[in-house]
Amino acid sequence: MIPRELLKRIRQIELRSIRMVNESLAGQYHSVFKGQGMNFEEVREYQPGDDVRSIDWNVTARMSHPFVKKFVEERELTLMLLVDLSGSGQFGSGEQSKRELAAEIASVLAFSAIRNNDKVGLLLFTNQVEKFIPPRKGRRHVLRVIREILYFEPKQHGTDLNHALEFLTRVIPRRSVAVILSDFLGQSRPSRSEIAAHLRRRVVLSEMLGQASFGALSQANRRHDVVAVQIMDRFEMEFPDLGHLILQDSETGDVVEINTGDERKREAFKRRQQRTRVEVRRLFQSAGIDSIELRTNEPYAAPLARFFETRKKRRRHG
Questions:
Q1: pLDDT tens-digit profile of 287-304?
Q2: CA 19 → CA 13, 143, 239, distances in Å?
Q3: Which helix (H) or strand (E) holds 93?
Q4: How many CA atoms lie within 13 A of 282 on its CB side?
Q5: Is the pLDDT of residue 72 over 60?
Q6: Measuring CA to CA, how many Å separate 303 from each of 40, 88, 106, 110?
Q7: Would the pTM of this model clear 0.70, i.e. be above it?
Q8: Residues 117 and 181 both lie in one domain
Q9: Range of the domain at 220
Q10: Are 54 and 202 part of one and the same domain?
Q11: Which residues of 89-122 are buried (b: 16+ CB within 10 A; e: fewer)?
Q12: pLDDT digits 0-9 by tens, 103-123
């Protein structure tokens, strides 16, 4: 028996997602993600402006005037949602955690997909693949995907994106749209002694991407159309002035005491995070991966719409 509160929460996400798909993203999903290829539809007479490379020479020879082949895009796609369920996803400084925001973004994309008669699959991962739901169509299937993202209890708390990408290429042999929803935080975190050493130098580290190397991402992007959705919280980018805090790493369990009242430490942390954001963006760009950064304390509709519009323009210009 599914608890009433769970059903209510899923229903709220469904209504918000459908409203956004209908009002803001109508047609955007269809225009920015390509199908599996081009299917032959018919032969018709050549018209001025047609690409001469599409001329069907056999028919042209028989009919004594030019004919061209007409192709249509094969539209059916598979949307794979790769959702990071590591411990850091539970963090949220406001009303919404990163995991809850990931569920909403996944819901918007999934409802956009089924509106276009595409299949939707789900891969939940930590430092292992926690759950795989094969791609299917339909509203009931999407609601199950939302439920699993929100309430699945992972066995592990770390992060290994490499393993998830390798699993994806094994189970989904045909090209798909693979959307990774993650904070891309600390897979190869410093030890407690390393943290202490850095704190003595007034630098607080948060290693990003870790083992998710350029090679793994670029290889996955050759097989699939990979999109990275980085979900962050504002306090992961800069510390508030809250005095002495005792913080525990949600993935490793490491505990450290930090004086957030020290302005030099706050500035050092902020600079480090800004540099790391630039490095992560460069890695995505080098691997040919489109990315978008979302915050738990900011509305996601506008940046998501801009992302779709940017992809659409780039596709239009080849």
A1: 899 999 999 999 999 999
A2: 10, 15, 35
A3: none
A4: 7
A5: no
A6: 37, 23, 15, 18
A7: yes
A8: yes
A9: 4-31+76-316
A10: no
A11: bebbeeeebbbbbbbbbbbbbbbbbbbbebbbbb
A12: 999 999 999 999 988 999 999
